[in-house]
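Example with several molecule types.
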Amino acid sequence: ATKKIKLEIKRLEKVETTGL
Amino acid sequence: MAVLITADSLVGFHRLIARPDDDDPDVVVVGRAEIGEFIELPAVYGEAIRLLREGLPVSAVEERLAAEQDVEIDVTELVEALTELGFVDSVDQDRLPDPGADASRSHFPWLTDRHVSWIFSRPMKLGWLLVVGAALVTLAVRPDLLPHYADFFWGEYVGLTVLVNTLMVSLTLSTHEMMHLMAARSLGVPGRIGFGTRLHNLVVQTDVTGVWGVPRRSRYRVYLAGVAWDLFLMASLTLLVAHVALPPLTKALFQALVVAVLMTIPFQLQVYMRTDLYYVLRDLLRTRNLFDDGLAFARYLRARTVARLRRRPCPVEDPTRELAPHERRATRVYSVFLVVGATVSLTAFALFAAPIAISALFRAVGAIVDGFNGGSVLPALDSGLLLLIEGAIQALFVVTFVRNHRHWFRWRRSADRGTSVA
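Resulting structure tokens for the full complex:
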């Protein structure tokens, strides 16, 4: 009666604010 | 990095940030701000990290979670994945190599929320609204003060004008980026300012990847701080020109700066590049990696089209298939927007901006040659100055582009030598 939970990893993108 | 992890292993971590996901209660965000690495993973694995940090060995964590939540998870696999990401400091007291040792340090580390949080307080927001509102009313009453392209040329010599305008814009750009950094710091997030590229544009950018560690509603402050400064500066300069008796040259310089800053705003709206407003759009759409996923989907469509033309099965899987329905829809629409926007932008650059720049270059060289052949010296010096400024900026673009795309150039050099790269 246990749930097997798969490890799923999502890498989050870089955050680079800009000026031009 | 091969690490032996047993059932009895004790795991030490670097300083990590963990918080619930903005939308999904079954997901947590975990990251290490020093190396700009953030991930999403199932909440039960987030709980496993918490228990490991409390000093429980691997098997005890699995047993505790099985007893408390009726779940079976693989903590060994978790520790291996976190080691690859650079989150793990030690296993069984053995220190691991730290990718953070080579990571670039945050700029102005002494700057804390104690120094900067007042900038983002309610009275300051009210002051910002009053200044911008007053400037809009002034422009409505005095339309002769509306920015005009001719305001850019305040002097007789183009080279000198461009030099002074570039210096003024550099100062306001630095302030624009400092606003991003201070907004991040007001939330306890590190930041680092440097150069970057967006398509054919050289940009100044602030790496604030650590904002993944704060909830979405707080992140907008960081994204919008730069444009808020731009609008505040333009409004303040407009009010000064309209209501203060300034020397003619000062007035002309202020109006030139308004035009130069105004010209940077449309760039921020080009959200098919990773601009400030792209991040606002990404969070409003409740997506995580809109740009990367959109680009991956565009590549998938290209591969699928080629495969159909060759009547072969598509070698690539749809990268959006595992996204939530709302995110899949947003990513696919954005993907089309990205391809069209980038194509139009690069085509316009190739057909107009590049030929104009090359033509200006030849004219400037002609003026310099005339100067050496007995012509006017001042126009020759002026042209030399223009060449120097634009040349330096283009050189900076090339250096930045190569530095940020090393993998492209490495592959080409290797390919030239006839070797393969894995």
